[in-house]
């Protein structure tokens, strides 16, 4: 095509160009989780670590104890440790790699980008539960084949609990990322703060009662079992409000106001 | 169309941009000129909603940037070519943008082709790109949504001479088809060849703006004599404001006739006497640069 054949296009009314829907933005953010080498390896590691746990269980558990639940529950813990890193990276990566400049140029309503990112990591957390189920199923089959019990014992209450557990983990990471907007700082803070909190509450008796409501390592523990009392849900809710909702809200305000350069 | 209205940005006691006002019309290329640290990038970031202004405002196509539902389809933005995720390939970077904007996936290949990034380059990770390749990728990103307006911050940085020539052609063509282009540079020569209008900024303020020809015409007189020292004394005596060039000549803010008369009265032999043209604008630019860099050193 030559210059002569091109004619100036008529001015387009701005309203005719619709903005991206949240679903489309979420799909883009999901793609961003996996389209870099670092992101891909993080996802692969999460899958591998769940598999490794199952293999270890095959060797250490007594034959009668090798049930589906015995494979499923332990795989949640290491995955739950890595999911927050995924949550952190999805937020802070934009700032450390400075791709926020492009992202917000295309979607200037920043809150939409953040909501899409949160939706993407929540979907990833739910997918991780499916991975845990899958490797547990493979483990159960292997146990049956190698002389273990291989019993398909599973309390269905465990499934929603596991989902809440992983979603809370990933959102806590995202909250720290959103608040601190810096990868190393967010990861260190995420790993250190709860530990410091646990140490302090173990040393100082006055902190022991608040810790039952605020220490997420205590409040989230019942989620790994099938039974949870109303009191346990209450304490979980309070601790998540403090460690997830608060950082998310403050981080959203910070991201909205921050200068992108 | 871009309208910038009394934009001001202060960081504490430091004023980065003060009362900047200008317009960019469809069908024209506006060169946004200024030394490093003059406030070009800050102004452009404010236009694109990246930096909240202290006061004033800017609209693109009649609306503030942040109110545009899908800005990529109306405005192509390149604020910093290095601001890309180093771990993504060039093609992936464009694909993400294409999906966000909702443009056809075929546009990705077309945009890559338009900026001269071949298949091998598109498959490589951006971290391995040279600055010139990043600029090309940034331009592809800006052109992806088939916009009416382009806002480009130092797009020629890192491009080789051939690349700069190519980019000029691309921007000229874009404007000739009715597009609006705002591009910044700290090199006068770079924008002189393509811009229709110039906005010169120094120390956060607009120091000159207008049509390129009109700005270049009003730039004074260049004079050179065999005896440069005597010429300086003569100009001083005649109270003609003059600045010494780097090559023994002087740029005088007066008509050539006046300067010639003063030289004739003093019996000086002139070797050159002509309207300064771009040399005068360059002089203005150099004074700005000198001022700005001392300020930067003090800061």
TrEMBL record, chain A:
The organism's place on the tree of life at top rank: Bacteria
Entry keywords, A to Z: Membrane, Transmembrane, Transmembrane helix
Transmembrane segments: 41-60, 72-93, 114-138, 158-181, 188-207, 233-253
Protein name stated in the entry: ABC transporter permease
Organism: Micromonospora tulbaghiae
TrEMBL record, chain B:
Segments crossing the lipid bilayer: none
Alphabetical UniProt keywords: ATP-binding, Nucleotide-binding, Transport
Superkingdom of origin: Bacteria
Family matches, as InterPro entries: AAA+_ATPase, ABC_transporter-like_ATP-bd, ABC_transporter-like_CS, P-loop_NTPase
Residues in ABC transporter domain copies: 2-228
MF annotations from Gene Ontology: ATP binding; ATP hydrolysis activity
Keyword hit for Protein biosynthesis: no
Record flagged with keyword ATP-binding: yes
Alphabetical list of SMART domains matching this protein: AAA (SM00382)
Protein family per UniProt: Belongs to the ABC transporter superfamily.
UniProt xrefs under PANTHER family: ABC TRANSPORTER, ATP-BINDING PROTEIN (PTHR43335:SF4)
Name of this protein: ABC transporter
Species assigned in the record: Micromonospora tulbaghiae
């Amino acid at each position: 095509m030559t210059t002569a054949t091109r004619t100036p296009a008529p001015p387009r009314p701005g309203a005719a160009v619709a903005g991206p829907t949240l679903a489309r933005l979420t799909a883009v953010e999901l793609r961003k989780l996996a389209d870099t080498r670092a992101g891909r390896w993080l996802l692969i590691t999460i899958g591998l670590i769940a598999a490794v746990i199952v293999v270890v269980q095959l060797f250490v558990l007594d034959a009668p104890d090798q049930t589906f639940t015995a494979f499923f529950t332990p795989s949640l813990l290491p995955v739950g440790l890595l999911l927050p890193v995924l949550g952190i990276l999805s937020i802070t990566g934009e700032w450390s790699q400075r791709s926020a400049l492009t992202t917000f140029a295309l979607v200037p309503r920043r809150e939409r980008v953040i909501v899409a990112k949160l939706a993407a990591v929540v979907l990833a957390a739910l997918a991780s539960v499916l991975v845990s189920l899958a490797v547990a199923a493979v483990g159960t089959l292997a146990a049956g084949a190698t002389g273990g019990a291989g019993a398909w014992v599973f309390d269905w209450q465990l499934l929603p609990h596991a989902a809440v557990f992983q979603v809370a983990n990933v959102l806590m990471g995202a909250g720290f990322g959103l608040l601190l907007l810096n990868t190393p700082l967010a990861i260190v803070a995420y790993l250190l703060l709860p530990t410091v909190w646990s140490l302090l509450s173990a040393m100082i008796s006055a902190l022991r009662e608040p810790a039952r409501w605020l220490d997420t390592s205590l409040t989230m523990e019942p989620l790994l079992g099938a039974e949870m009392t109303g009191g346990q849900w209450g304490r979980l809710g309070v601790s998540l409000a403090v460690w997830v909702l608060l950082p998310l809200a403050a981080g959203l305000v910070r991201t909205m106001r921050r200068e992108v350069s | 169309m871009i309208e910038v209205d009394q934009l001001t940005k202060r960081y504490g006691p430091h004023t980065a941009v003060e009362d900047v006002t200008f317009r960019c019309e469809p069908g024209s290329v506006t060169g946004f000129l200024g030394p490093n640290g003059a406030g070009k990038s800050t102004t452009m970031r404010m236009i694109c909603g990246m930096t909240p202004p202290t006061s004033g405002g800017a609209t693109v196509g009649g609306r503030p940037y942040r109110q545009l539902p899908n800005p990529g389809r109306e405005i192509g933005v390149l604020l910093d070519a290095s601001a890309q995720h180093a771990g993504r390939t060039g093609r992936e970077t464009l694909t993400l943008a294409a999906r966000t904007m909702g443009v056809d996936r075929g546009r990705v290949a077309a945009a890559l082709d338009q900026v001269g990034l071949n298949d091998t380059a598109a498959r490589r990770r951006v971290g391995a790109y040279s600055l010139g390749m990043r600029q090309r990728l940034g331009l592809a990103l800006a052109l992806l949504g088939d916009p009416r307006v382009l806002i480009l911050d130092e797009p020629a940085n890192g491009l080789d001479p051939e690349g700069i020539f190519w980019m000029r052609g691309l921007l000229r063509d874009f404007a000739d088809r009715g597009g609006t282009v705002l591009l910044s540079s700290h090199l006068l020569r770079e924008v002189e060849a393509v811009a229709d209008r110039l906005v010169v900024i120094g120390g956060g303020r607009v120091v000159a703006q207008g049509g390129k020809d009109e700005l270049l015409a009003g730039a004074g007189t260049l004079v050179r004599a065999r005896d440069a020292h005597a010429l300086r004394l003569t100009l001083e005596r005649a109270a003609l404001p003059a600045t010494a060039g780097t090559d023994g000549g002087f740029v005088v803010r007066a008509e050539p006739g006046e300067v010639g008369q003063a030289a004739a009265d003093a019996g000086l032999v002139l070797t050159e006497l002509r309207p300064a043209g771009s040399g005068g604008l360059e002089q203005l630019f150099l004074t700005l640069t000198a001022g700005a860099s001392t300020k930067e050193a003090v800061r």
